[in-house]
Design a protein that fits this description.
Elements lengths: L9 H13 L1 H11 L2 H26 L7 H10 L3 H11 L7 H30 L6 H28 L5 H24 L10 H33 L2 H30 L3 H9 L23 H27 L3 E3 L3 H25 L1 H6 L4 H16 L3 E3 L2 H26 L8
Antiparallel strand pairs: 1-2
Helix pairs in contact: 1-2, 2-10, 3-6, 3-10, 4-5, 6-7, 6-10, 7-8, 8-9, 9-10, 12-13, 12-16, 13-15, 15-16
Length: 433
C-alpha cells in the first residue's frame, strides 16, 4: 500500500508562486515579514515570561492563608496536568511562609515595570502593523493604561470561567465565552495601545482572528501540553516546566502577531471582496470617505484552480501529520519528540522522502511486491519511515518491525481520511477568484 503524495507540476510552480505572492495571503505574509514578525514573536513571548514571574510572586505573597498553592492549582487546571507533572508544578510554584510587605511592594513595582515593558513591545508591534509612529511620552501613558485594561479584562474573564466551570457541560460553554472575551480583549487592547488613532471598527477583524485563534490554541493546549510537560519534566526536571511555558507563550505571541498582520492587511486591502465586506459590516472609520470599488486586475491574485491546489497540498499535509500521530499513539517503539509543529515537520520530511526515494524503492521491490500480492510495499514504506527517522532526531524508531507497523497504520489512516475528503478533492473549480 503506497503512501499518497501530492507533487505539484514543476512548470506551474513559478506562475503559482507569483500569483500567490500577489494574493491577499501573500500580502499578509509580506506584511508579517516587514513587521519583523518572527523577531517580535520572540521578544513578546520573552517579555511576557519576564512579566509573568513577578505576577506569580505577587499573587503568591498576597494569597490568603492556606492558599499558597493558588498559582500551582491555576496552572494545573489550565494545562490539564496530573500525576508527576502536576506534582512538579506544585513543587515549583507553591510558596511557604507569610508574605512580607516589603516583598509585596517590591513585587508590585517589578510587576508594573515588567508589565509596562511587555505592553510597550505589543504596542510597537501594532504600530509596525498599522504604520503608526511613536508618540513619545503619550505612547508610554497609553502602554500603562493598556496594561491596566489587560489585567482587568483577564481578571473578569477568570471570574466568568470560574462561574461557568460549575455548570453542566462547562467545556461546551467555555469555547464561545473564550471567543467572545477574546474579541473584546483583542479589539480594545490595540485600540488603546495605538493611542486611539485607529478606529475600533477597523480593529474588529484582527480582534476576531486573534479571538478565534487563541480559543483554538486553548483547546489544543489541553491536548498537547500535559504529555509535553510530563516529557520535559522527566528530561529536565523542574526546568522542563519553564521550557514548556516559554513554548506556550511563544505560540500565543505568534497568534497575536499574525492576527495583527492579517487585520492590518485586510484594512488596507482595496480588493472588491474586501471593500464589500467592510462596507456591509461597517468595518471602516465613519469619518473617512469610502473608497470606490476598483476594477479587477487581469491575472492578479489566485485563481480557483490555485486555491484548490493549495487546499489539496494543505489537506495532504494535515492528513499525513494526523497519520504520523496515530502511528506514534498506536505502535510501540515509534516516538515523536515535540508538539504539533514537530508532527508537521516530521510529516513534511516523510512526504519528501516518499516523493524522492519512494519511486526508486518501489521499482526495485516491484518483483517482490507482485509475488507477495503487494504486501512487500509495506516493507518499502517501513524503510522510508526508517530513512526519515535517520534524517531527523525528532523521530525515534526502535527497529524495522515497528517501522513496518507504523507504515501500515499511516497508510490505513490516510486511506480512511481520503475516503472522507474524496468529495472535496473531486470538486475541480476553474476561473478567477
Amino acid at each position: 500500500m503506497k503512501t499518497p503524495v501530492v507533487v505539484l507540476p514543476s512548470e506551474d510552480m513559478a506562475a503559482l508562486s507569483t500569483r500567490l505572492w500577489g494574493s491577499f495571503l501573500g500580502r499578509c505574509v509580506r506584511r508579517f515579514l516587514m513587521m519583523g514578525g518572527i523577531d517580535r514573536c520572540l521578544v513578546i513571548s520573552s517579555q511576557a515570561f519576564t512579566a509573568l514571574i513577578p505576577l506569580l510572586i505577587l499573587i503568591s505573597t498576597l494569597a490568603p492563608a492556606g492558599r499558597a498553592d493558588i498559582i500551582a492549582d491555576a496552572i494545573v487546571t489550565k494545562f490539564g496536568l496530573d500525576g508527576e507533572s502536576a506534582d512538579a508544578v506544585e513543587k515549583l510554584f507553591t510558596t511557604a511562609g507569610a508574605p512580607t510587605s516589603g516583598l509585596s511592594v517590591f513585587s508590585a513595582l517589578l510587576l508594573l515595570f515588567s508589565g509596562v515593558s511587555f505592553t510597550r513591545r505589543v504596542q510597537a508591534m501594532y504600530r509596525a502593523a498599522w504604520g503608526q509612529e511613536k508618540k513619545g511620552v503619550r505612547s508610554g501613558v497609553f502602554a500603562a493604561v493598556g496594561l491596566v485594561l489587560l489585567l482587568l479584562e483577564v481578571m473578569v474573564l477568570y471570574e466568568i470561567r470560574a462561574l461557568v466551570r460549575g455548570l453542566p457541560l462547562d467545556w461546551l460553554w467555555m469555547l464561545p465565552i473564550s471567543v467572545g472575551a477574546g474579541l473584546v480583549l483583542w479589539t480594545s487592547i490595540p485600540y488603546v495601545l495605538l493611542d486611539r488613532q485607529v478606529h475600533w471598527r477597523r480593529l474588529f477583524v484582527p480582534g476576531a482572528v486573534a479571538a478565534v485563534a487563541t480559543a483554538v490554541l486553548g483547546v489544543a493546549t489541553t491536548v498537547y501540553m500535559p504529555p509535553l510537560v510530563t516529557k520535559y519534566t522527566n528530561q529536565f526536571g523542574l526546568f522542563g516546566i519553564t521550557i514548556a511555558l516559554i513554548g506556550w507563550l511563544l505560540a500565543g505571541s505568534g497568534v497575536i502577531v499574525a492576527s495583527a498582520a492579517v487585520g492590518a492587511e485586510f484594512d488596507a486591502s482595496h480588493e472588491r471582496w474586501a471593500l464589500r465586506f467592510k462596507r456591509k459590516y461597517r468595518l471602516i472609520d465613519p469619518t473617512i470617505e469610502p473608497t470606490t470599488v476598483p476594477e479587477p486586475i487581469e491575472g492578479a491574485g489566485l485563481s480557483r484552480g490555485d486555491v484548490v491546489m493549495i487546499v489539496r497540498v494543505a489537506l495532504n499535509w494535515m492528513t499525513m501529520s494526523a497519520a504520523v500521530w496515530a502511528a506514534t499513539a498506536i505502535v510501540p517503539g515509534i516516538d515523536v519528540s515535540g508538539g504539533p509543529v514537530t508532527y508537521l515537520g516530521v510529516s513534511l520530511l516523510f512526504g519528501l522522502v516518499n516523493a524522492v526515494l519512494g519511486p526508486l524503492l518501489y521499482y526495485v521491490a516491484l518483483p517482490l511486491s507482485v509475488f507477495t500480492l503487494g504486501l512487500f510495499a509495506l516493507v518499502v514504506n517501513g524503510c522510508l519511515l526508517v530513512i526519515t527517522a535517520w534524517l531527523t532526531e525528532r523521530l525515534d524508531i526502535d527497529g524495522l518491525g515497528s517501522a513496518v507497523l507504523g507504515a501500515l497504520v499511516i497508510s490505513v489512516v490516510i486511506t480512511a481520511i481520503e475516503l472522507v475528503l474524496r468529495p472535496i478533492r473531486r470538486n475541480e473549480l476553474v476561473g478567477p477568484v
